[in-house]
Amino acid sequence: MIIELHLLQSFPVSNLNRDDIGQPKTATFGGCTRARVSSQSIKRAARLLFEEYGLDSSEVGVRTKRLLDSVVERLVRADRDQEQARAVAMAAIQQLGFGLDPARGLTQYLLYVGRESIDQLTSYCLSEWDALEKFASARTKAQQAKVKPDKAAQVEVRRILDASRAADVALFGRMIADNKDLNVNAAAQVAHAISTHVIATEFDFYTAVDDLKPDDESGADMLGTIDFNTACYYRYANVDLSQLAENLQGDVDLAERTTRAWLLAFVNAVPGGKQNSMSARTMPDTLLGVVRERGAWNLANAFLKPVTDNDLMDGSTRRLVNHFARLRGFFGSDGIRAAVAASVSGEIPEVEGVLTVNSLDAFASAVLTAGEYGR
């Protein structure tokens, strides 16, 4: 079973997701420039909300290069000497097959691990303390920071970095180049959000004055520009419930709570770029949820021709729902179990087979019930 989430969300002056020169990200779509927010930015904003929507902190992971520091902190709390703890923890990470920058103590790349993995690695250090101390003392700075784990170490790393209790790792997947046994196939897909209409990047020229400047001096003491745009975005994401269940090793309760957290977090997710200076904290206006047994339809082509209506949200909503209806009419509705729509403005076109509800609670309940997760 697959749940799809289609959202239309309008933002005022904003720079939610910047490129390398500070401008709002864009994409050319349908031969026109559109505003864009990357899928990575949206996923991070959603991940940070999972604990607010029914998941415990122990059930979500962390993406970090600072695994060493976290383990050392726990070892020190277990009454181990800090210098020895650092050497032992570094030896453990290296012995398990991960490279470390000896000077900074950072892994070579970001590792996506469940919080339980940090505790498991700490326990491994404590139980293998003497062997790890010996391993650490035998290595010199001239030696490579990474070793190929033996069979015993491979068993340990699979146990320690098991992600079957980390809901976000189960959703978004994990790839570890050094050990393919640790890879997790993502259950969720997230598209880059794009504006339904043509945009032009603008800029705000600002100045700042020194509050302690003498009265007889004039002029600004700082000036600059901040790029921004305003846009109505189409956002799309889906989750494969079968893959999610597999990743969570059949834990139905955790899978159900993860699915609900995924849905509510994505509805409420807003990237944090330039929010302190622009506060573009809006909510989606139009929501369309589709539950299907197979396949997936990104509805971005509804906006291949840019929306030009004076009311962008109304025009985008009609485009979205009618495009879905046309696709279903052409390709058939076999496999589509339900389609549910809701709108803050209430302007949902009447389309056969699309249930209209009037609140987020009703929307989430209808979509999750149609998914019949775990039944």
Write out key terms for the chains shown:
two-stranded antiparallel ribbon, single chain, 375 residues, 12 helices, alpha+beta, 35% helix, 10-stranded mixed beta sheet, 2 domains
Strand content: 15-25%
Percent helix, as a range, is 25-40%
How many angstroms separate the termini? 11 Å
- Could you give a short account of the major beta sheet? 10 strands, mixed
Number of helices: 12
> What integer is the average pLDDT?
90
Net shape:
flat
How many structural units, i.e. domains?
A: 2
Structural Rg? 25 Å
- Quaternary state, please? single chain
Order of helices and strands: EEEHEHHEEEHHHHEEEEHHHEHEEH
Q: Low-confidence parts lasting 5 or more residues at pLDDT below 50?
A: none
- What structural category do the secondary elements indicate? alpha+beta
Description:
With 375 residues, this protein is α+β, with helices and mostly antiparallel strands. The chain has 2 domains: 2-57 and 187-201 and 229-371, no CATH class; 63-165, no CATH class. The chain is 35% helix and 23% strand. The protein has helices at 39-47, 67-77, 82-95, 115-127, 129-138, 151-160, 167-172, 241-247, 252-268, 275-278, 312-331, 360-371; strands at 2-14, 26-29, 32-37, 61-64, 100-101, 106-107, 111-114, 188-190, 193-195, 202-208, 222-240, 286-292, 336-343, 355-357. Strands 1, 2, 3, 8, 9, 10, 11, 12, 13 and 14 form a 10-stranded mixed beta sheet that branches. Strands 4-7 form a two-stranded antiparallel sheet. The longest helix has 20 residues, at 312-331. It is flat. The model has no long low-confidence stretch (mean pLDDT 90).
